Amino acid sequence: MVPGSGRIWIAVQQSSLSKKMNGNKDMKTINKFTSSILKGMRFTKSSYLIAAVFLLAGVAGAAQAQAAEPQIPPPVCPGPDCQKVIEFWNNTGHAVFPVIQAGIQNPDPWLQALFNDNSKPFAETHYSRVYVNPVNGIPAGDRVSVTIPWYSKLENDDDKYADWYNGGRIVLFDTKEALDMATNDPDTPSQKLDFASGSPPIYTFADVGTVGKPYIIDLHVGYNVSYLDQVYLPVALAPCLNEPCDGTLDRFAVGYLGTIQALSDFRMILTNFSEKEGWPQYLPVNGIENNPRLPGAFDVLVDRVEVEENGQPSRLTPIGQSVTDLIDQWKTCTSGDSVNCPDYKLYQQVNQYFTGNHREYIEHPVNSCTGKYPIPDRLTALNIMPYVYGWVPFNRECNSATFNDLKDSPGPETWFDTTQANYVLLQYNYRTITAANKKQRFNPFTDLIHGVDNLNANSYAFSIDDLRGYQNHPGEGLIIAIGGPKGLPNTKPVLPDKANYAKDFLVTLGDSVGKPGEPTFPRPRWKSFEVCTKTAPGTPPCTEEDFKPLPPNATRDAPQFIVDTSKYDISAMNPCTITITDAIDREYKFKVNQRVPWPAHTSVPPPDPDVLTPIGTRESIVWGKQISETVEGPPMKPKFDLSPPPPDPKP
User: What's the whole-model pTM score?
Assistant: First the structure.
């Protein structure tokens, strides 16, 4: 607090791309809620529950999955290892107004791990928020750097701490009026915050093991961009590997999540999709500028159930053809109509699994199921759809978060794994459906988010779209670029680091390093790879990537990359050519002729000729015949890997 002023100031260092901001006049925070005074930051207290809770739980789960990792000692706070930075780059043509929000946690394993004490919950029972430059926002073309401590102590508050590392949420308002409405209207803060961005970035600034006594795994930056609930603003995220994160380009830096489209192009695509497809928008909000804001499939279907089965007013503009087709196609496919639904077997399997989950919900309630349980008491062709498209179990009115979990109910796990893989395939079936058969798309919204001719964003389009929407890397903070690429160290999208074998195969190149004294030593290092298919309407451009250079004393050089057989629509008529180049510019080529799943094959070379064909020079063909093809399937989880040999020795 500035002495004698009654004002609260946030520790924000702001600099323009062309000039420095004028002192502290644009660093004031304002708010009408009860507030807590903290060193260097200001927080807002509210008891309102908002949609971020589900996403925050997902972030914590990502950390829990790594619980077997070795732990590190807690950092000293305050100190350089107990703070991160968030860099905002505004590439739009007007001011934007960020809000950083700490979540509700009870208990909070992140603080338990930091303080090495799980005898206390260190709970946060309300949201805490920081308003960055709420008077004038971040002007067009400017940037703001915000230093984020792991935690801050709250004064005059029932909660002792606000934890800024565990599942934070960032909301981006695009007008001052929208910010003021959300800040000054305590009656519906959930709705007011949600209309702000439509793509709120979610982050964690440490990975914590939560099995047993919580412990710190590492201080990585975990983050995602989610368009699964709604889509409104173009946002791209990348880790700040080393400060200062000043926008210097580095082609080996981690690529971005989200989209780098200009705001005008982004909104044009949303408008065209809504008008041509008949996809609804959220109803306009009085008192603010209303731009296209489209709900995800889950929200559309929830709204349909409320309107058609519960007699409630719609929150959306009238639905059009694509929503009608989506609902009709579900009914057609789950009835087993193979003529009008080529994917009917996948639909039926998903439908059977969720029907079984509802049966378990009805037949095996737990004591914590109260109130209006069960909801719904019976299934219809419509009311099952929000659960399917949200990939959520039936457990309403049951207080146990783990009750009726999809992985176990109805089970077994092998059926769950197969159902989930087929569900992901359905989400991406728009890639293989012709324009004349667009009504057969499982989810037109996934087409909007990921389609090459639409937003082409790498972000969540549905709730288990993890390989497109979540990243975790070492770093000193997070970079958020709004409406363009400026500020990102790498202007290419990040490549997935884990194969989704429902549609991908993994290539692991042979180790080029070798050992001194071997007859093939030395070999050249691997340099780059390229993935291409025939140029045709809707076909994605070639993927070209250089492998990150290794230090001279590296003991291993076996890079990996992932190929999405659905994205490239791979077939015998449209084979995928993969070209790998070594450090002395020799090319090794082969064609992949089938999308996964591939037929059974041993791991012994040569590969299945129906799947893979070596091409190119004589040396390339000899090299290609030594590729090991690994195919695994039921009862094991599917796996499709190619393991080419090392590069040829130097001449």
Answer: 0.82
